Amino acid sequence: MNLRRENLFRADEMTRRRFVARAAQTLLGVGLLPGVFPRLAGAPVVAGAPAGGGTAKNVIYLYMDGGMSHVDSWDPKEGESAGPTKMIKTSADGIQLGEYLPRTAQEMHNGALIRSLSSNQGAHEPGNYFMHTSYEMRGTISHPSMGAWLSHFRGPGNPSLPASVYIGNSSRPAGAGFFPATHSPLFVNNPEAGLKDIALQKGLTPEAHLARMQLAEELDAGFVTSFPQEKVSAYSEIYDGAYKMMKSQDLEAFDLTKEKPEVREAYGKEAFGQGCLLARRLVEKNVHFVEVSLNGWDTHSNNFVATPALCEQLDKALSALVGDLGQRGMLKDTLVVVATEFGRTPVINSNLGRDHYPKAFSGAMFGGGVKGGTVIGSTDKTGGEVEGDPVLLPDFNATIAYALGLPIQESVISPSLRPFTIANKGVPVTQIFA
Amino acid sequence: MSAMKILTLIAILASALTAPAAEKNVSVKQAAKAIDAVLQADWKANKLKGNAPINDEVFVRRIYLDLAGRIPTTTETTVFLANKKPEKRAALIDDLLARESYVSNFSNFWADILRYKSRTNNAASVVEASYGKFIKDSLRSNKPYDQFTRELLSGKGFAWDNGAIGYYLRDAGMPLDNMAITARIFLGTRIECAQCHNHPFEDWKQTQFYSLAAFTHSYTDPSSAMRNFRGEMTRRTAEIDRQFQAEKKASSDKGKEALEQKKARIASLDNRGLSNVIKNCVGQLFSPIELGRDPKKVLKLPKDFMEVDGKPGDVMKPATMMGEAVELAPDEDPAEAFARWVASPKNPPFTRVVVNRLWGRLFGAPNIESFDDLKEDSVPMVPELERVLESLMVDCGYDLKKFIAVLVNTRAYQSAASREEFVRGKATHFQGPFLRRMSAEQVWDSLVALASHEPDAINQKKAEIEERRINISRMAADAYLAFDGAEMVAIAQKRLAEDVELTKRALEIKTAMVAAKSTKNAALVKELGQEEGKIARESGQRSVDQLILPMLNNLAREKGATLTVVANYKPSGNPRLVQPEAWGGFHIAGYGPLPRSKAEMDAAAEAEKSAAIAMAEKLGIPEKARDQFSKSFSKNRADWVRASELESPAPRGHFLRLMGQSDREFVENASTSATIPQALVLMNSDLVSSRGLLAPYTPLMLSINASPNPEEQVDAAYLALFSRKPTAAERATWAKAADMGLRSIDDLLYALLNTKQFIFIQ
Questions:
Q1: Which residue of B680, B681, B690, B718 is the best one to mutate when testing the A interface, meaning the one whose CB has the most A CBs within 10 A?
Q2: 3-state DSSP assignment of residue A61
Q3: Per the count of CB atoms within 10 A, which of B465, B516, B671, B674 is most buried?
Q4: In chain B, positions 347-406, which contact chain A (CB-CB < 8 Å)?
Q5: Least CB-CB distance to B674: which of A189, A214, A234?
Q6: What does the buried/exposed string (b/e) look like for B497-512 if buried means 16 or more CB atoms within 10 Å of the residue's CB?
């Protein structure tokens, strides 16, 4: 591509990240930013209803951090690769799963598997980054995650809540990338703790608080008059936004005590299970993208102790989530994705573990218009080679974007004047949809 | 010629040879006047006027924030305002530039630019600790900026000898990205597009990018500490090869049998197994700790190279694509030539970038719009100003403190902030500085100044931990370098043989664990886990006794010192880390101080308590409250630490991050935008409460409670937060607030700390 600078729409007003950030940036609600990021002239803008195929409005993205073993879960084998893992039948004809996912097996008629994922990034940080952004990690630019892309094209679904939420403990989760901070996900470390700093200080009544803030505004009057600038007024706007958020009924989405104990039990008591429950509650309040992360899959040793334990957490939460969404009539609108950065070696090492294996691994999708009981691609009898065409990670992400009806081919120009697309030219696997 | 004259001549010649730039004796006063003259001429030509001069109250708050990185304390403000000397502003500037708070402030500035992280995944924490020290030491000694740059771009050696290697190791494994970042930081040129294809807008070709990257491509981790081990393995492999050659010669089957023998001998030498034994003994201590050069390493065009002026696999010779060409002498280190080329007054972008960074920092907007994306046609806002500033920097010999002193001594700097904001793309004539929001670090450090009695204190605990870490690594490296390679290999072989037995047992236990897990026998799984841990610990302990201890004893002998065991040393509980942890349990003189014993730590705690009580006396705290003050003093010291003394970046969720501190992943990634979490943390967290800033013995509250008179308390609040008295209107507003039920000084403080004017620099 040989873009000449003059051809770019409003090139002289092209802004750097800092200038854009200086405009009234708020995390929630105040001011969507259409038109700040110029698009290539002539490219269509897709908005509103999905473009056919997928029916999803929401994505719940379950990320298995560390490299989830595919032959012990989604793509079970017989023979040496299997080790002690057995395979079990599922509610979908012809599909079998590893024995550690019995409840998920009962939901397989609502789900699809992609057994031909393939990547060239075998280390954690680059692999994680590539899976989340479809681009290779660089030291010179940060790429947006799917939640940020969704936020950029559609804005937040609920004006009092963030456009996307991340629930987990990753030290470097994918965020807004080169988009303004508005499109950053809200980070929730502990799903049971609720939102930080959302309640007034102990002992401070709402009336006293309001009075204090009014006083602050009055004492600021001179300053605001002397400096009628956007960067100053932005601070009034965030305080307004903060009140809105504090008073919002929708915030009770973060209060898990509002759920029946049996429901909380069904999802599983650990942070991941409760995080999936929180994700459902957020999606019910129109938060369109929630990621929940489960760490610990990097089983270089003791794979057959650790992986079953992690699968147990995933199994409970995933099956509860899919069942729950189904009961509430939300499954068609919500795409549940299970992703990881790479699989694990079919060959078992001397520590009874499996090592990194990006060449062939699996992902799963439930709901969101997916054709239940579908399997895309396959691996050979060891689980080491993809048979036929691989599904690359950009293709996987393009599939998610397709489900949401996002404009996969539209180029967006970053503040450093480079063009990017949602899935780095990945091709969606449309056969996965009904 | 007299001896005196000869000596003088020699001295002059010597200084001419060593002085990097033509440093002239710059008078700060004259240089400031010159800048003011340029701006005044520009205003006249454009029919503009400079903004009004600022009074001492506005000046003291601004200058402390810009030089010390925080608001002044009440005492500092009072002292300055009461000072009647005519040159007091210039004197305060000199004073602030000489203080440790300058180092704290500007280490944040450089951490942002260099993306300094105190913890990364790849480098041993020794490298980060040394790099952080290097940056601060360079600021403290006011190292000239060109020298600082040259050291960063060509640093080699062990981390403890040269912390500057942290610059290159920041991008370990991504050397091309490192070069793109170097071009951006030091030359204000964004060439990263050309890393993958010819640049779409500028003239940079991908081949030119690669030619530039070739200058630093021969950097490598030499792993010098392992050279005795490697030397011995090389010797033995060569011996096996000699045997093979001899046997082949004497054979009747063309050497087939001999080849099999050679293969068997190589296998039984088990280089990999032995390396693992050695590596397990040092773990993260050696990963990596050193930067060196391998002249044989070359940079080739990548496999997917598609442009017309080269082929994939072409070897790229180092060459510059702008400014002067660089001629490399035959054995010259290209990185050093590159560093000299970059950091030179003969390379105008080098001076241009730093000048604009500093001007932009102090005036709220750079004179050239995008200082990290300079183009041929970039036009400065005030061209003559640019010329004067660049000459000034060169004349100062890249002395940053002097340059900054000149800028803040100008009439232009000491003017009111402009009413209008800076708009990119619109011309400005710097009639005054622009209004700036404080950086995240300036906000936090200002809160620290309100809450802590020693706001500029160094984080002693962190410094000690880092120091110890560096010393342990150094001791381990020296131990390896001093130990005979053959002996090392012999011990490793013995260890390996012993471990085979232990590994067998471990595998049996792991298999049993799998079985136990499938029968859901939790108790058995736990028991087996403990067994497993015991075996790992046993193996580790044997390595300590058979390899680490002999090496340390050998080192101690060489140094003529004794090996001491550190009392109350607590290794990590992880059974797999016995060996690398073990090093921390030993000490040899010459490797830093012995870690403090329990008695010493108790004594230190007592001393701190006494110091706290003494401070309580000094502050006039009544005797019955002194004990409580002393307790809160220790906690206060731990909680309220300046940004430069915390991890870089601060942990996610920390106030600093919420206020926009850079995540240090990308160059200058900090933000001063308003976000809702900022409002939430200021209103609802413990910060602005009696559990935080409003706790009884903070400097803020002590200054408020110094007088029981409500009027004087309002004065004290304004003095502490804004370095001035309240206006009549502000007093009236507060008086009226009683109608809303607001009568306590806490109400006023809460309101003031949530105003916009608190976090903006006027």
A1: B680
A2: strand
A3: B674
A4: 370, 373
A5: A234
A6: eebeeeeeebeebbeb
Rounded Cα gap, residues B710 and B727, in angstroms? 15
Q: Render pLDDT for A342-354 as a digit per residue (tens, 0 to 9).
A: 999 999 987 889 9
Return the H-helix or E-strand segment holding A394.
helix A393-404
Q: Which two tokens stand for residue B675?
A: 């976000």
Which residues in chain A are contacts of B193 at CB distance < 8 A?
A: 418
B261 and chain A: CB distance < 8 Å anywhere? no
Whether B181 sits inside 8 A of A142 (CB atoms) is no
Residues in chain A: 434
For A413, phi then psi, to 5°, come to: -95, 130
Pairing state of beta strands B563-565 and B586-588? antiparallel
- A234·B677 Cβ contact <8 A: no
Sign of CA dihedral B510, B511, B514, B515: negative
C-alpha count within 13 angstroms, C-beta hemisphere, residue B715: 9
> Which range scores top for mean pLDDT: A274-283, B313-322, B574-583?
A274-283
Contacts of range A90-96, beta carbons closer than 8 Å, 24 or more positions apart: A92/A372, A92/A373, A93/A373, A94/A373, A94/A375, A95/A373, A95/A375
Q: With beta carbons less than 8 A apart as the criterion, state whether B321 and B215 touch.
A: no
Please state the rounded mean pLDDT for residues B693-709. Answer: 92
Cβ-contact A181, A151 below 8 angstroms: no
Determine, for residues B681 and A197 on separate chains, whether the beta-carbon distance falls below 8 Å. Answer: yes
Give the sign of the dihedral formed by CA A45, CA A47, CA A51, CA A57: positive
Query: What ipTM does the predicted assembly reach?
Result: 0.88
Of B419, B492, B1, which is closest to residue B233 (Cα–Cα)? B492
**Angstrom distances, CA of residue B464 to CA of B139, B193, B468, B479, B612:** 20, 42, 6, 22, 22
Query: What SS3 class is residue A357?
Result: strand
Cβ–Cβ gap A197/B190 under 8 Å: no
pLDDT in tens, A293-340: 999 999 998 899 899 999 999 999 999 999 999 999 999 999 999 999
Contact list in A for residue B511 (CB cut-off 8 A) is 352
Are the Cβ atoms of A351 and B666 closer than 8 angstroms? Answer: no
Residue of B nearest to A5 (CA): B201
Q: Do B675 and A27 touch (CB under 8 A)?
A: yes
Helices then strands, each counted (H, E), chain B: 33, 9
Cis peptide before B288 (omega within 30 of 0): yes
CA-wise closest residue to A101 among A63, A67, A78, A69: A69
DSSP characters for A133-158?
Answer: HSS---SS--PPPHHHHHHHHH--SS
User: What percent of chain B clears pLDDT 70, i.e. is strictly above it?
Assistant: 96
Does residue B69 carry a pLDDT above 70?
Answer: yes
Interface test with B, best of A88, A99, A218 (most B CBs within 10 A): A218
Q: What are the residue ranges of helices labelled H in A227-270? A: 230-247, 261-267
Q: Is B525 on the interface with A (CB under 8 A)?
A: yes
Counting DSSP H helices and E strands in chain A, the numbers are 10, 17
Q: How far is CA B135 from CA A139, B113, B132, B167, B484, in A?
A: 21, 12, 5, 10, 36
Q: Which of A212, A239, A305 sits opposite B679 (nearest CB)?
A: A239
Pairing of strands A186-188, A164-167: parallel
Q: Which residues of A touch B201 (CB under 8 A)?
A: 3-5, 417
List Cα–Cα distances, A146 to A135, A143, A153, A294, in angstroms: 12, 10, 11, 18
Spell out where B404-546 has E strands: 436-437
- The reply to whether residue B751 touches residue A213, judged by beta carbons under 8 angstroms, is yes
Cβ distance B121 to A4 less than 8 Å, yes or no, reads no
Nearest to A403 by CA among A376, A356, A366: A366
Instruction: State the smallest CA–CA distance between residue B199 and chain A in angstroms.
Output: 8
